[in-house]
Amino acid sequence: MTTTTDVEMSIDKQKKDIEILRKKLMDWSLSIGPNCSFDFSIEPTIVGKVKHCSYSDLNEITNFKNPEVIQKTISGRLFQGTIVEGSEKRSVIVKTWDFHLPMRDALQCLTTFCDEIELFTNERVNMHPNLVKLYRYCCDTRLALVFDEEFTRLVLSDMTWWVERMKVATQLADLYSCLHENNIALDRLIPANIMIDKEFNIKVFDFGFVTNTFNVDDSILDDVASSVVCDEKFRLQIMPQASISLFLCRKLGKILEFQL
């Protein structure tokens, strides 16, 4: 039987794994010249239960050709992929972080990459049915996450039916509530980055910013608040618990593009 101590120990180990990965990436970014190639050459680190995959492994999952490109994301692109485990073969999603030399925005890219791994390996929230499931991560030549999900090719921005949008709103509210209870906040969650299956169940796979450690009694740092387009969402971090429901309704109304 899993005890609270077991869970806390697992979460503590996962945080240490993330910090090791974050330090390796930051050290690499500080050691390169303005015209170096993206040969990360970082020793693989297991984060929680999620393993690192090499660039050659990533190429076997998806070859990064145009037919496999699903859409652009805030960080880069989304690709269709396939994984094979024994006799089992299934579709997956590969999300890349695309940035170019000279590395003007590299530190921001590396930070968001690590922040998303931390979110998707957080055992308190990563089993939520409306978050995609992280399968592998890659920091060998490319920064990429592999999600164990089949892309349905239907996203929220394609959907116009009122009843189904209300079902989506309920699921988003539940996801936001779960994240808030665990001191996690997301930014720039837009309709094009919310995948929907045939039963109108959602999977969130992309967002502009995630903070995994906010305190509801803390105010937001000025540099963070000024760097986001929709800083209104960050009021979630400092709002009293009783105000959350009304805030969510208004925010979800904007995401779903109907007036509340």
UniProtKB/TrEMBL annotation:
Keywords: ATP-binding, Kinase, Nucleotide-binding, Phosphoprotein, Transferase. Residues 64-260 form the Protein kinase domain. It comes from the Eukaryota. It holds the Pfam family PK_Tyr_Ser-Thr. InterPro entries: Kinase-like_dom_sf, Plant_StressResp_Kinase, Prot_kinase_dom, Ser-Thr/Tyr_kinase_cat_dom. GO terms for molecular function: ATP binding; protein kinase activity. This is Protein kinase domain-containing protein.
